[in-house]
Design brief:
Helices cover about 60% and strands about 15% of the residues. It is of the alpha+beta class.
Length: about 325
């Protein structure tokens, strides 16, 4: 059958247009699908992050209630609880806390991130009592953090709903959960968000800290804390077999003398490996970097170093990062007779 060229051309254009339309629809569907998948993944990650935070909170602070989970989360999202308009009043309150509390009253940590993302950091007043930072530095960092721009209470209400819905599903059986949930809902309903720690938390952990915005913490406070933070390491040592007996005596002596004579030495604990008697692992814990540097200058360490220099075949120092510094005081207390 004869078909004019003009008809063929129209049919070809129609087919092409349908293909382009089909491809366009397919591309749009693909983009929508990718968007949906990304959204679902984002929700999943958020849920995982919330669950991870809650589990860590209850592991470190088992006396926590929903109030304390809420408080850490709003500190992370909203920052300090209120705008600071009277510096002298804030200073007076900090002075009062510093005078009323000793180092032994406080939790052993110096800083810890707030909530899920750590946008703000809790700085313990321990940092001032131990002389790591000045009172003026902590006060200034807190005031600048408190007076910064913050999200609206309405946006926080939406965020909290996401958090508490996931907490509900975790079935944690937290004490006073219904009352705490109702109280939080009541303050949010009137446009407020700040609350205190629960009585249980305050009694168990005596929280005394200031909230500092993360960038201020990282640039101004963290470097000073790092210089004073506990130093933990393992010395991996291999000695020549012919000096084994002499090295055993020297290692025992320097460990015992260091702990007895140096307040900054928490632990020097030599260990001999079972699989190779010429291999040693010495666990060393110093109160801070300065304590370690002082240890290197002491007579007993210098004697050990000079006496054993020719005995050591290989030495490697491995620095460690404690995962739970809060548990360390109880570990050593248990060793008391």
């Amino acid at each position: 059958m004869f078909v004019s060229s003009s008809v063929k051309k129209m049919d070809f254009q129609y087919i092409c247009s349908r293909k382009i339309y089909t491809i366009g629809v397919f591309e749009k569907m693909k983009k929508n699908l990718i968007f949906v998948i990304c959204m679902m993944y984002g929700v999943f990650v958020q849920a995982q992050d919330i669950q991870g935070f809650v589990n860590r909170q209850l592991e470190v602070y088992p006396k926590s209630r929903l109030l304390d989970i809420y408080k850490s989360c709003f500190q992370d999202y909203m920052g300090a609880e209120h705008l600071v308009t009277d510096r002298q009043l804030v200073k007076a309150y900090l002075d009062e806390e510093l005078q009323a509390n000793s180092i032994d009253d406080l939790m052993p940590w110096y800083d810890e991130p707030c909530g899920i993302e750590g946008n703000y950091v809790r700085i313990s007043i321990r940092t001032v009592l131990e002389g790591f930072i000045t009172k003026e530095m902590l006060l200034d960092a807190f005031i600048r953090s408190a007076n910064g721009k913050r999200p609206s209470v309405e946006s926080w209400k939406n965020r909290w709903k996401t958090i508490v819905d996931i907490v509900d599903k975790m079935n944690l059986h937290l004490p006073h959960y219904p009352e705490d949930r109702a109280f939080i809902d009541s303050i949010l309903a009137v446009g407020k968000y700040a609350i205190s720690h629960s009585p249980d938390y305050r009694k168990a952990y005596r929280p005394h800290y200031r909230i500092v915005e993360r960038s201020i913490y990282e640039h101004e406070i963290k470097p000073l804390l790092e210089a004073n933070r506990m130093l933990v390491r393992i010395a991996e040592i291999e000695v020549y077999p012919q000096y084994l007996t002499d090295y055993l005596k020297a290692a025992r002596n320097v460990g015992a003398e260091s702990v007895r004579k140096e307040s900054g030495v928490i632990c020097i604990f030599p260990n001999q490996m079972n699989e190779n008697e010429n291999m040693f692992r010495i666990v060393e814990i110093y109160r801070n970097k300065a304590a370690y540097e002082h240890h290197l200058t002491t007579e007993h360490f210098q004697t050990y170093k000079q006496e054993t220099l020719h005995m050591v075949k290989e030495l490697k120092l491995v620095d460690l990062k404690p995962l739970d510094i809060n548990a360390m005081p109880s570990i050593f207390i248990k060793l008391k007779p």
